Amino acid sequence: MPIAKKSAQPTVLITGASSGIGEGLVHEYARRGARIAMLARRGDRLEHLARELDARDVRALALTADVTRDGDLERAAQAALDAFGSIDVVIANAGFGVSGRMDELTLDDVRRQFETNVFGVLRTLYATLGALKASRGAFAAVGSVASYLAMPTQGPYTMSKHAVRALCETLVVELAPHGVSTTHIAPGFIDTEIRRVDNRGTFRAERKEIIPRFAMMPSAVAARKIADAIAMRAPEVVLTGHGKLGVFFARHAPRTTSRIMRLAPHRPPKGDAPPPAPRNP
User: DSSP assignment, residue 31?
Assistant: First the structure.
């Protein structure tokens, strides 16, 4: 893809930008004076965000894109390059969680999880890597504290986030010679919509938040910490105090951590349990 001369004003491309951490990152980078390419499936929300930013004289581009569809990310990256001339920071944030016991889920459930959380990150990387090498920029992927902790009823999600962490650890080494940094973002409980999204990735407004508000970090605070870590080109940032505690125990006391995980509920919250998986006769 053709790349114009890099501007002194950085361009940030964010997937999953219509809500939660992604929306928080949009506002945080707008505050920092960046130009922003916002990607998400929900175009109406992106257009609303774009109008907000335009009123603040922030240059932003709203691009409807689905990280599970081949070609969407390439088209969006090219549109960002055409509009802004460079891509300096890429944040692969789009993701959701499939819940349920592994013996009740199907291969299709797991494939659906990986298409967004793993292959969506890879599509984002491959679509923007040429531009990032040219700008000697920064790539970041939103993983989870779940990449360190195996929670009952969260098997597909945990598997996908382990894969994201492994990918980031690989990219830290492989992209360094090109001047591109990689940051793995491992949030704990953040005030987002993820727990109100079903196993097919559809937002359910009627679902109740199952995490007490006092236990969640506001998405604006998370966005500020993420942007700081990317600016420092840190290989990883773990968000929330409980998240840091969980990662510490997983690293240094794995047997104790495993015993604690066995005490966790082995059923999803009421109303979230998937239907029994079809079995071959």
Answer: H
